[in-house]
Backbone:
């Protein structure tokens, strides 16, 4: 029996082929199921419709990130960045399929609209996580950081989708710059256990983060 993940991958690949060949609107669920070698009922058990085939990876990724962010993390800001890296790594595993899907989304208005909603879901996930993890964090800092991380991620990912060779390190460097702008990129130097520390924080650092760091050092 075919593993559910393999089945979904096969259906997605077949659907992308058909969308590219004859257009999104002209492609029926029956055609996709036939090309993928599955029944119509199997298709609907895996997907709700043609749009869901295109965005199935995002649904799985959002579930994965919810689980990841529910785990304990010493640095919530870094956890959001790592979540972004996980999404990029997923699509970088098969850049050709990701590029073909991107071209289809770009050309179909209903898919472009859904992509906008999907991007917002990532932002909202990061925003809520930061607010839950950093009590007292100003909402503008949570939503601003989440929106900037998502925008930077999408900017780097689009370079990959447009045919450029983009390493994960490019995204990591860009995400570090975002943390630096917010004043939440840790210094590389490590303090000794018996050091007396006079703390100086960037003006841009959110007060909730300053409080978190001071409490972490004193505990």
Residues:
């Amino acid at each position: 029996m075919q593993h559910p993940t393999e089945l979904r991958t096969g259906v997605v690949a077949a659907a992308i082929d058909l969308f590219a060949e004859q257009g999104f609107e002209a492609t029926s669920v029956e055609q996709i199921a036939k090309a993928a070698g599955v029944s119509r009922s199997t298709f609907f058990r895996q997907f709700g419709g043609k749009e869901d085939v295109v965005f199935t990876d995002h649904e799985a990724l959002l579930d994965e990130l919810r689980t990841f962010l529910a785990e304990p993390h010493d640095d919530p800001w870094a956890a959001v960045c790592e979540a972004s890296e996980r999404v990029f790594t997923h699509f970088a595993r098969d850049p050709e399929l990701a590029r073909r899907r991107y071209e289809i989304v770009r050309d179909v208005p209903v898919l472009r609209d859904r992509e906008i909603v999907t991007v917002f879901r990532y932002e909202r996930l990061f925003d809520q996580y930061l607010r839950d993890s950093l009590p007292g964090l100003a909402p503008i800092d949570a939503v601003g950081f989440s929106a900037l991380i998502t925008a930077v991620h999408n900017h780097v990912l689009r370079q990959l989708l447009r045919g450029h060779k983009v390493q994960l390190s490019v995204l990591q460097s860009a995400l570090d710059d975002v943390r630096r702008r917010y004043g939440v990129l840790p210094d590389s130097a490590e303090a000794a256990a018996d050091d007396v520390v006079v703390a100086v924080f960037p003006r841009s650092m959110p007060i909730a983060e300053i409080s978190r760091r001071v409490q972490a050092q004193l505990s």
In short: The two ends are 53 Å apart (CA to CA). DSSP finds ten helices and no strands in the chain.
